[in-house]
Write a structure and sequence with these properties.
Layout: H1 5-31, H2 34-58, H3 67-74, H4 78-91, E1 101-107, E2 117-123, H5 124-162, H6 167-195, H7 205-232, H8 237-259, H9 273-293, H10 314-338, H11 348-373, H12 384-402, H13 455-461, H14 470-473
Antiparallel strand pairs: 1-2
Helix pairs in contact: 1-2, 1-4, 1-5, 1-6, 2-5, 4-5, 5-6, 5-7, 5-9, 6-7, 7-10, 7-11, 8-9, 10-11, 10-12
């Protein structure tokens, strides 16, 4: 059984950031900066409350007689208690005999031929640790993009206005950046495990390094661009942020409305229609928050029973990064035109070039990850570079055909009707994931709630898929 290191990292970042934010807010209070103090506390307490609600909801503490655990969650100590509980479970493995075990089936990655299915015994303790890991993966994403990202932007904006970095503010900024990058990394890993749940996924250290570098350059560049633009055009930053947020918030709902699918009813049996709507709004709210700062590895699809789009769409990713690069360049150009005297000691053209190159480096590490380090790259129906090349070729073709002088004169002529293609003769869609046509075998869901009371309850939950409870319905994207 693996050591719960991800849980320890999540709790450490959460505790360190909360402590640093509380200390910094006290310094703002001493200096008389009530606005900065209020915003610092806001970006600390709001994600903390959402983290407590997520842990309580995933572990279903409201339906159990656990008043002490609920009290600790109200006191914002839930992550620490859950971490201690996970370590107690890990320490008790092997000392107490398991009352029952379950058989799980996972496919190995295909090397030379078809993938082989391997059976493995899973005990009750290991199932509980799976639940804790899944819960902390979601809370890491919530903490990162609803708390750490706004906090880092705020503190960097204060540094630009005051033209200085204090020790407390610098410490909080470093911790916030690490929290955002770690949340994005957990989002990538969670997306891989959701999309390829039938397979035994083994993420190698080089993949973690590529994701870390990719997300670090991408997020840091995005935050600096927003801060520079807001420092010279304070009023115009609000339309930019609201437009970005509303586009990504409404996009899943527009696709859901166009699909004419029924309203999702399988998120949680105890939820009413109003409660389900609130959960879906929170899911799309988090999805918009992630895409404000970086590419969301988990794509929300409300018309899908699992609420997740499991196909790998290279075109959507290519369009996102192209538009984001153009937006960053436009914001930097506006900053360069309207820059004030506080930037007189900075070489503005060199700074603009460095930020654009940093974003290009982020895209480079993303390509390296998907092309060489992705644990499931053998299952791709097409490579990412080929998908990006096809997308860029399509955009160039659209631009060239849009100009009147490049439009060829086509003479209409009758053409004989061609026979219809059969289903077996149609070309395969290279933009979709090859796992869509694979059978759905009985597998142990790593994201399922595995805190069982009876053997029958465990057997009924094994292989239940993502649409069994709230831990499936609200992925990291939540």
């Amino acid at each position: 059984m693996r050591f719960p290191s991800s849980i320890f990292v999540s709790v450490s970042l959460f505790t360190a950031e909360t402590t640093a934010a509380l200390y910094l807010s006290s310094t703002y209070r001493s200096a008389g900066d009530q606005i900065w103090q209020g915003l610092t506390l806001l970006f600390t307490l709001v994600p903390s409350v959402l983290v407590q609600l997520t842990l309580t909801f995933i572990h279903r503490d409201l339906s159990r007689d656990r008043p002490l655990i609920l009290l600790l969650h109200i006191l914002q100590l839930g992550p620490i208690v859950r971490c201690l509980e996970a370590f107690c479970i890990y320490g008790s493995v092997g000392r107490v005999e398991e009352p029952y075990v379950s058989i799980t089936r996972k496919k190995q990655m295909p090397r030379r031929g078809q993938a082989e299915e391997v059976e493995r015994q899973v005990g009750q303790a290991e199932g509980k640790l799976f639940t804790h890991r899944a819960a902390f993966a979601r809370t890491s994403v919530i903490q990162a993009f609803l708390g750490s990202a706004p906090q880092l932007t705020l503190q960097l904006y204060i540094c630009v206005l005051q033209q200085g970095v204090s020790i407390g503010r610098g410490t909080l900024m470093v911790i916030s950046l690490l929290s955002i990058v770690y949340g994005a990394l957990r989002c990538n890993i969670l997306a891989i495990k959701i999309k390829y749940d039938d397979y035994e996924v083994d993420v190698r250290p080089m993949a973690y390094v590529c994701i870390f570098l990719w997300r670090s350059f991408e997020i840091a560049t995005r935050v600096v661009v927003l801060v520079l633009f807001s420092s010279v055009l304070q009023l115009w930053i609000l339309p930019v942020v609201l437009l970005n947020f509303l586009v990504f918030f409404l996009y899943p709902w527009i696709l859901f409305w166009q699909s004419h699918s029924p309203f999702p009813e399988n998120i949680e049996k105890t939820l009413t229609r109003v409660g389900t709507t609130i959960v879906l709004c929170m899911l799309t709210f988090l999805y918009a928050g992630i895409n404000m700062f970086c590419w969301s590895a988990v794509q929300v699809k409300l018309s899908d029973p699992d609420l997740i789009n499991k196909s790998q769409n290279w075109y959507r990713m290519a369009v996102y990064y192209m538009l984001r690069f153009v937006e960053n360049a436009s914001l930097l150009l506006l900053w360069y035109i309207h820059k004030t005297d506080i930037y007189k000691f900075i070489c503005a053209p060199l700074l603009v070039l460095q930020l654009l190159v940093a974003y290009a480096i982020a895209i480079f590490f993303m390509l390296v990850f998907y092309q060489f380090c992705h644990p499931c790259r053998r299952l791709f129906s097409s490579s990412m570079t080929q998908g990006l090349w096809d997308c860029s070729s399509l955009l160039c073709l659209m631009c060239s055909s849009g100009s009147p002088q490049n439009r060829p004169m086509v003479k209409e002529a009758p053409t004989p009707s061609a026979p219809k293609e059969s289903a077996s003769q149609r070309p395969h869609d290279t933009a979709s994931d090859s796992t869509d046509d694979m059978p759905n075998d009985t597998t142990y869901d790593m994201l399922n709630d595995t805190t069982f009371d009876t053997p029958n309850e465990m057997d009924s939950n094994i292989g239940g898929g993502i649409n069994g409870n709230i831990s499936h319905g609200v992925p990291c994207t939540v």
